[in-house]
Design a protein that fits this description.
The complex is a heterodimer.
Chain A lengths: L2 H18 L8 H11 L4 H9 L5 H34 L6
Chain B lengths: L2 H23 L6 H25 L5 H24 L5 H25 L3 H4 L4 H33 L12 H21 L5 H17 L7 H23 L2 H25 L3 H6 L3 H5 L16 H9 L3 E6 L1 H5 L3 H13 L3 E6 L9 H8 L7 E3 H4 L8 E5 L8 H4 L18 E6 L19 E5 L2 H14 L6
Parallel strand pairs in B: 1-2, 1-4, 2-3, 4-5, 5-6
The chains are: A mainly alpha, B alpha/beta.
Chain lengths: 97, 479
Amino acid sequence: MSFISLLWVLLLGSLLGLELIGKVPPTLHTPLMSGANAISGITMLAALTLIVKAEGNVPLLIIGSVSLGFALFNVVGGFFVTDRMLAMFSRKPSNKK
Amino acid sequence: MNLPVIIKFVIDLIAVLLLALGIKGLSKVKSARDANRLAAFAMSLSVLGLLSYYLGTSGIAIQSWIWIIIGSIIGSLFGAILAKKVPMTSMPETVALFNGCGGMSSLLVALGVAIFPISSSIENFDFFKSIINEVSISVSIFVGAITFTGSIVAMAKLQGWLSTPGWTQSKGRHFVNIVFAVASLIAFFDLINGSTSSIWLLVIVSSLLGIGVTLPIGGADMPVVISLLNSYSGIAAAAAGFVVDSQLLIVAGAMVGAAGLILTQVMCKGMNRSLVSVLFGGSLSSQSTTSSGSGEYTNITSCSVEECALTLEAANKVIIVPGYGLAVAQAQHTLREVTKKLEQNGIEVVYAIHPVAGRMPGHMNVLLAEADVPYEQLKEMDVVNPDFPATDVVLVLGANDVVNPQAKNDSSSPLYGMPVLDVQEARTVFVIKRGMSAGYSGIKNDLFDLPNTSMVFGDAKKVLNDLIGELKDLGVGEK
């Protein structure tokens, strides 16, 4: 990928993000923030790349592994906690009365 | 193009599509839970895509597998445990912690690449490309470090582990932060010029900058900061995407970055604060104590729990205004007991939710949902405001600034212009509160002086418990 096309990707991704969140009820702001936060843990892919390309360089492997750990902490924790919050919303209407 | 490249391309495309659908779905109550799972699925898919690509091309060494597995298991395990254990009231801090770790991850990737250049950046080396590489590494480290230290400070402050030190409220802090910013800029250009050692300078000063910027901000503004830092962690991820040449990372990071900015804007609007004043204005309470809103209360009516119960019993329509004080007192379950009794007596009960009730948009909804309050009874501000004139009793629990009529009537008030709940329109207003202390803005609340407002002093949980007892004595909800 050339640098210019990566910049296009960046631009379009940002526009997509702006567009997606246009109208959100305040109710969902906290779960949304938490869900988006989990997605930002996508850096785990970069950490994976680092580990795969380390070619036996142990310090690099360790850095990559720690980085992967931090990213997955963010991703797994983020999605679980979002699900916990959302479960409370969706459960309610059914067991009313 | 060979097969693994095509497969990875297709998987990445699907993952981006699903992530976008996930964020979109998270903005509707009905689809939110499925959308969250969809996003989680998309993330796992993207990992499979990346692994299969390397398996199909260069292969993955056993040694790499070992480190992948170690990192994944430890990270996922801690994340899952924390997510299951943490109480709902600490949600803002938890999001901050997760967010900080995301920033740390981006920082480490960039650091790793900077110290040990990986093979991909060496093959087809050219000057232009190496500049881009250095820039993206620097941005990733800079933003990643700010995200990490900023989030940790935010978490510590929300948890009450860290107070706002006095010196951070002086003008001097701007000077200190400017020094940090300039130093990181110098390190940044040094790094581009090929001085690898300045990378540590960059790490240190950007970490300090994250602390220096977050520390002076008051607790009430912290959610805005967390939301902004959430946006930063997206930017850090996008920068890391440039470092390792991954379009998927860039798109996902940019989406989160942009979405986080919008959310930050929305939260600022709800609190009537501009982003600039949140970031550079310091703690609100320290500056506004001397400003217009302060003054003595002249006409406070205080009443007993018994009177409150009698009035409630005679009401047809009751609106509850919950605030962060309710959450702090962990009284949402007790509140639910009270409203159940009222409902059994045929009294209509509605909860009025201010957009920033509970310090974070939607946080109060989560807390009340946890206490089994039916979702349909939670009414947003714009929906519920016209109902107040037809309401018999309003119960204000641990909320203060969001029910201050000054925001509408007094153009000299710092709160002026902030959207508030028009509780004073109701026939009777009960404010349950520990004492006469001001809210987070540090401003006097004119509501307390109004003739139709009565104060019930005491801890929210205790008052509500007493209220249950009184209502029982009156025979409310005994049928």
